[in-house]
Amino acid sequence: MPNIIFLGPPGAGKGTHAAQVSEIKGIPRLSTGDMLRAHMKGDTALGREAKAFVEAGQLVPDSLVIEMIRERLKEADCKDGVIFDGFPRTRAQAEALESIVQIDKVLNLVLSDEAIVERMKGRRVCPDCGYTSHTEWLKGSTDCQACGGTLVMRDDDAPETVLNRLRVYHQQTKPLIEYYSGKGLLRSVDSFGTVEEVAERMRKALE
Ligand code: AMP
Fold it and tell me: How far is the CA of 83 from the centre of ligand 1 (A)?
């Protein structure tokens, strides 16, 4: 029952690679970012609480995300393991997670701030299904290749918000590298290069 965490700064490719690994291993990807966006889109109480934090590039309070994950993990499809994408992002979240499930591996995607800012500028996502692409591959198209929807730039991918999200990452999430390294669970993967190159490094790190 593998429970794998994808750690790394925003825009390092966690979503893309977590989705691939989820498909290969046949276990669900739990993206707290996607879950929060779905709540915001559905205008739920949780979505309304989270909105201002997400839009400012700040972290949503720990208690909200921890509860959201706790509930999700009760669902039947999680019983054979899951991939955590974008969770935990703070020490408190990591400790809470440990009291719910055992973690088997933490994949840490490594990418410089400069490369992240460049990648985020061209990132395009589908608001309907979450599919992610990049202007470099889209060649002017805005069609979602997964569901036929229209790809857009995420509001929080605007350059000034990206800088804020990077600051938050360095302050609150990066310390988890040491935390999981100390537990012997961390595998770092260089995220510079093409999706295929990174996927190959990922495959080796998961062996
Ligand atoms: P992501 O799609 O993972 O980049 O997340 C988008 C935004 O959702 C983040 O900038 C935060 O505002 C919020 N968010 C996602 N995951 C978490 C988390 N584990 N803890 C707190 N806030 C989160």
Answer: 15
Q: What is the pLDDT of residues 140-178, one digit of tens each?
A: 999 999 999 999 999 999 999 999 999 999 999 999 999
Q: Which residues pair with 187 in a beta bridge?
A: 107
Residue 180 CA to ligand 1 centre (angstroms):
19
Instruction: Please indicate whether residue 57, judged by its CB atom, sits closer than 6 Å to ligand 1.
Output: yes
CA dihedral 125, 6, 41, 115 (to 10 degrees): -40
37 is catalytic: no
In angstroms, rounded to a whole number, what is the distance separating the alpha carbons of residues 204 and 142?
33
pTM: 0.93
Alpha helical stretches, state H, the chain: 14-25, 32-41, 45-56, 62-72, 91-98, 113-122, 135-138, 159-168, 175-182, 195-206
* pLDDT tens figures, 16-52: 999 999 999 999 999 999 999 999 999 999 999 999 9
For 20, 29, 59, 123, the CA distances from 24, given in Å and listed in that order, are: 6, 11, 30, 24
